[in-house]
Amino acid sequence: MRISVSCTSRGALRTAALGAIVVAAGMLPGALPAAGAQTADASLAYSCRFPQGARQVKVKVAGEFPSSARVGRPLRPGKMNVTVTVPQAALGDLSGLGAATVTGTAGFVTMITQGTGPSPVRWPGLAVKPAAVPRGGDLVLTASGPVPAVKVGKPGPVIFTLGQLALDLKPRKADGSATSPDALAVPCTLNPGQNSTLATVFASPDGSGPGRQDRPERGNLRQGPSPDRSLAAADIPADCEELGEDIGDPFALTVCAYMTGYSNVKKLNSAMLFPYTIINIVGTTFYDCSPPGKIRFCIPFKARLNSGGKAGFPPARSTFLTYGFMPTTATVEVTQATPFMDILVELDFILDDEDGDSSRVTATAKFGMRVHEAEVNGTPLDVGPNCGLAEPMETKLSATAAEYSPDSGGPLAGEATIPPFAGCGVGEDLDPIFTASISGPGNYVKMTQGNGCTAQSGFGCPPVKPVPLR
Questions:
Q1: What CATH architecture is 26-204?
Q2: Residue 17's pLDDT is what?
Q3: Is the pTM value of this prediction over 0.85?
Q4: Which of 44, 236, 452, 456 has the highest CB neighbour number within 10 Å of its CB?
Q5: DSSP-derived secondary structure for 167-180
């Protein structure tokens, strides 16, 4: 499954609520906080575009965060301290201007995740202290300053993750006069493959943070159905799974939600109801994937359906009027065609003043389908044990960010092409009949997801079964 979100923002990088079919609350990994205030730091590598070319730059960010926050109140990080080590090979641009010292500002685009909506927020104006440009060796710049407070809208982890860095350097000559040009804008992109999470602050209604009594032990959260599992603070459905170990990150947060929906069969002028299933979602750290002239973040996720230990929806008994008059009833099973749904959230925002909100969610997935226990006008029809689609069915669904968000759920709609059938019939080939009466494009699908439940903390639990929309 791939999810793309595009956002248009104005001024101070306003972003709308974001979401996708399997993105869920607080899934980006971060260190667990200590009691009281916590000191956070991150050492990262950036690729910075100097006038003479791209150079690798080392960046260290340190600051103080509260370890807990209260829902509805501002969360105020402490002063941020930044150290930027510019390699000697990148100093030609400064020395070529006759610069003896350099000052300026440093700014970050920081992703703040509450629930499932990662929102980019600018940390601008961190003042760079004047530093002498060395004749040999690296240039070490230090910057510091306050960063904006964050309004906490819901309980759960609030995750601060560093993104793009922008250096606005102001070189000065030995006599203090400005060089020509008098400023260098140096955009820096975070190198991929790094964990750039700076801090995690847990929010609760009373600001107490997640006490031990409110946080289940990881050993109580088993994969697959677990009828004997219990959780004092929340009711976790048995089909909620922990997927962190499956993706190689045992500390990654997994969320689960109920999902249901309808799919039309265009040729039969009928619709089939998908029974409730559980969808489990796990996220990994985002990375900067900005094309030239834009700011873009990519956030990969993995997801898996679970219905009684099977990756799919429960069997559905459906009745259609074949050829418009003959009642045909069959049991239909829709299953996930791959071990995981692969999800990528692409978050764009533009620095301009245009109005409107273009935020959208797009989701695609592949599913298999099997048909059995068929009856035509009340007479059993032996379709065999392997009657189903000859190849996986690709489904593309979308919604606006106002219609759908992963933590609160909502509808996602689109169309699917039903592939030809294969393996149908015992003693006679029924594939052409199924293909002619069912297969083809233009089949409207509308899935509805309920709210997300974070099993590790109990936030959002128990998940609510949504009413399927048509």
A1: Sandwich (2.60)
A2: 30
A3: no
A4: 452
A5: EEEEEE-TTS-B-S
